[in-house]
Specification:
The chain is of the alpha/beta class. The chain folds into two domains: about 150 residues, NAD(P)-binding Rossmann-like Domain (Rossmann fold); about 110 residues, Dihydrodipicolinate Reductase, domain 2 (2-Layer Sandwich). It is about 30% helix and about 25% strand. The protein contains eight helices and twelve strands. The strands form two sheets. Strands 3-2-1-4-5-6-12 form a seven-stranded parallel beta sheet, sandwiched between helices. It has a five-stranded mixed beta sheet with strand order 8-9-7-10-11. The protein is elongated. The model has no long low-confidence stretch (mean pLDDT about 90).
């Protein structure tokens, strides 16, 4: 599949976490799209596929690029313009620091990062005058879902979010649901509920509480990819805004857009909605 809407000139890309499901999707998208050049692929130092051609790992033709487990050394050898990171929250900041100090721009799709993590990377980005894009969700439809929900929040005083993901997703609630509540609370400071005092018969039944007093409910099941419903309510009516990603290819146009955009930045941007016109 080619993603021909975004065609910059030969942006050299390193993929970190390249053997994960999202990492492999990024490898295939970069390799297939004119204007983007895959130059290196990195994963954990104990990965059993180290030394193998990343193309064969990802089910495409061989690329001549061998999977490595040493990020700093690989950056030095392959000289990428952009590093795309879909790894784990406990290592993504260290990876980004290595990249930024080497003058490599960074696109991060890893979820589960804290506000402190993001603030620290923002400082590093400014110190090194090197761009960073962090996005909880790269699907354009998901960005539109959040935009529509923010607009609707002006008119509905009650809201809840239900997010559904595959059973291998570690963090909950999802970064997308947290970001959705954050954007909605910009339009309405606080969403209300009936004054009736609630009693949870099972702790957590009402979900977590995000920005703006919005309850967030997380579902984790095999067979799912990434799905979210935002429910808004007023007297006698509800409005449901839903987005579904059935395949990881849904994220790739947004990833390629972020790679192109980060080339223009000398600071950090959080959220793809700040890129999508």
């Amino acid at each position: 599949m080619r993603y021909n809407n975004f065609m910059p000139k030969d942006i050299k890309v390193l993929v970190c976490g390249a053997t994960g499901k999202m990492g492999q999707a990024v490898v295939r998208a970069v390799d297939a799209t004119p204007g983007f050049k895959l130059v290196s692929a990195v994963d954990r130092s104990d990965n059993v596929s180290l030394g193998k051609d990343i193309g064969s790992i990802c089910g495409i033709e061989e690329t001549g690029i061998k999977l490595t487990g040493r990020l700093k050394e690989t950056i030095s050898k392959s000289e990428p313009d952009v590093m795309v990171d879909f790894t784990m929250p406990e290592i993504v900041c260290a990876n980004a620091e290595i990249g930024l100090k080497a003058g490599v721009r960074v696109v991060i799709g890893t979820t589960g990062m804290t506000k402190d993590d993001i603030n620290e990377l923002s400082k590093l980005s400014k110190q090194n005058a090197t761009g960073v894009v962090i996005a909880p969700n790269f699907a354009i439809g998901a960005i539109l879902m959040m935009k529509f929900a923010k607009d609707a929040s002006k008119y509905f005083a009650h809201a809840e979010i239900i997010e559904y993901h595959h059973d291998k997703k570690i963090d909950a609630p999802s970064g997308t649901s947290i970001k959705s509540a954050e954007l909605m609370s910009q339009a309405r400071k606080e969403f209300g509920r009936d004054s009736l005092k609630e009693k949870e018969m099972l702790k957590g039944a009402r979900g977590a509480i995000g920005d703006g007093n919005i309850h967030i409910h997380s579902v984790r099941l095999p067979g799912l990819i990434a799905h979210q419903e935002i429910l808004l309510a007023g007297p006698g009516q509800t409005l449901t805004i839903r987005h579904d990603s059935y395949d990881r290819t849904s994220f790739m146009p947004g990833v390629l857009m972020a790679i192109k955009k980060v080339m223009e930045l000398d600071h950090l941007i959080y959220g793809l909605e700040n890129i999508v016109a």
